Structure formats: C-alpha cells, structure tokens
Amino acid sequence: MNFQQLRSVREAQRRDFNLTEVAHALHTSQPGVSRQIRELEDELGIEIFMRAGKRLTGLTEPGRHVLPIVERLLHEAENLKRAGDDFARAGSGALRIAATHSQARYALPPVVRDFRAAHPDVTLHMQQGSPQQVAKLLLDGEADVGVATEALAQYDELVALPCYRWTHSVVVPPDHQLAREAAAGQVLTLERLAQFPIITYETGYTGRSHIDEAFRRAGLELNVVLVAMDADVIKTYVDLGLGVGIVAAIAYDEERDKHLAAIDARHLFADNMTRLAVRRDAYLRDYIYSFIETFAPPLTRAVVQEARLAGQLLTSSEFA
Fold first, then answer.
1. CA 102 to CA 229: how far, in whole Å?
2. pLDDT (tens digit per residue) in 121-134
3. Which CATH superfamily is domain 91-163+273-319 in?
4. Burial of residue 175 (number of CB atoms within 10 Å: 0-12, 13-18, 19+)
5. Which of 34, 64, 158, 175 has the most beta carbons within 10 angstroms of its beta carbon?
6. What whole-number distance in Å separates Cα of residue 140 and Cα of residue 5?
7. pLDDT digits 0-9 by tens, 61-112
C-alpha cells in the first residue's frame, strides 16, 4: 500500500469516477491510475469501485466504508508534513485562503498587508468562491483558512469562529429620490424600498437571507431585477440606473464610490456575522494562527485551540 494508490482512490471519488480527470489532477496517465486502484483493491481483497467495462461508475459497499479511512490517512499524512515543516522551515511556507468575493475584496486586503509585513517568507494563495465552495475547499484539504458569512457554520467537520458583525447599505445615484429623502432626514422604510426595483446578491451570498427574511416578515414583495455575486457588479448596474442596490456596508467607500450615495439600512435588516473556519482535524502551522489573530484579534491561538478541542461553535455574542 502506498500514498499514490490512496490518492488515486480519493481523486476518483472526488472527480465523479472520471479517470481522465484523475490522471490530470495527479499528473500521471490514465492506465497508471487504473493500475494503482487495482493494486490497492488486490491488496485489500475487495473491489472499491463498481465498473461498467473499464469505466468506474460508483463506490461499492466496501468502498463506501474504505473511502473515509483513505481520506483520514491522506489528511494525517499532510498534517505530519506540516508538523515537520513547522520545525524544519519555521516561518516559511504557504497559506491557502478561501474566501467569498466580498471578504477577499473588502475585508482581507489590510489583513493580508499586515500579515505579509510580519511573515515575508509565507506565500499566500487566495481562492474565491461561493460560501459552499469555500467550505468544500476546506473539507477537501485544499484551503487552510476559509472566510465567509454564509454556510461555514453548517459543517461539523469545520470549526467556524465568529469574527465581526456587519450590516447592509442601500446604494443609489446621488440624485435618486431615496438619496434626496435621506438627505432631508426621512428614515428609509421597507415599504418605501419595496416601491423600487432591487439589485442585490445571489441567494446564499453576503447576507441575502436576511434581506429576504425582512421583506417576507413585513409581508412585502421583493422586486429583484438583477442579482450578482459581488458588490462591484451590483454598484455598476445601480450606476446605470437599473435599480436600487442593497450591498454590504463595507462594500461602499465614500472616496471610491463618489458616483453613488449610501443609505444606512441596519434598521431594516438583521446583522450578519462573518466567520473564519478551519478543519477541525487539520494541523495548523504557527503562521496560520498568526493570520487568524490578525484577521480577528479575539481569536488567539488559545481560543482557536479550545474551540477545536471542544468541538463546539463559539457563540456569536462573544464577538458582538
């Protein structure tokens, strides 16, 4: 039994049993992948995969029991390597961050700047995706740290740590009716907002659930005419006059967005909590703890370790 055999089995399951994609991912040939899988099956005395001719079509019953063990073995091998690197290559290495666009664009830049100044020998790899994609990258061991507002707290395999609360803002052109009303001291209401076409986030992104919930609770129809994954796109179409935008307050910058006016909407929609997540069973190198504390100072090494050992989420109230 060897690690290449284990990797072939894991990648076959991850890539929907497509051996061509497995070979590409492992930088080898398709016959080589097939051979590695067969050799492991022969050694274990079971068939891990169901087959139709030469094609893999799914996991057998023994395969469903074996695969989690394969995952754990490969994960622990990676942990062992990181533990060794912590001593052999202290202060240098790679940090893989997975984040949603809003976090990568607005929350992370000053954190990355400060972290790089303190750890110049650490290479950063930034990956962007939906909250579900961020969670999957963590679960698959392809990211060390994940940052998102939605989804991360839904997985038992992850420790999702509350970092900061944020609210939404309504953005409109400066000459828009709502901007004039806000300048005159009128408080924006959901009833007033419901009179306009809305441009906001896709479902499952950046607090969209709280927007939908507020309108639903008020018995009002939310007239969404355009959805996007990030605030920059939303602001672009608001500027074109297609509708009123609802974005994360952090996404509006007075200097950069002079062509738009922002109206505070914290009284309309529930607060949102951004969380930072790591795999519960991952070995975290020293500089990963440093990055976490740079992003959210209350999340000291001791706090993170306690949360991982306790197997429980920290309550949001601790970081209100």
1. 9
2. 999 999 999 999 99
3. Periplasmic binding protein-like II (3.40.190.10)
4. exposed
5. 158
6. 17
7. 999 999 989 988 887 888 777 777 766 666 788 999 999 999 999 999 999 9
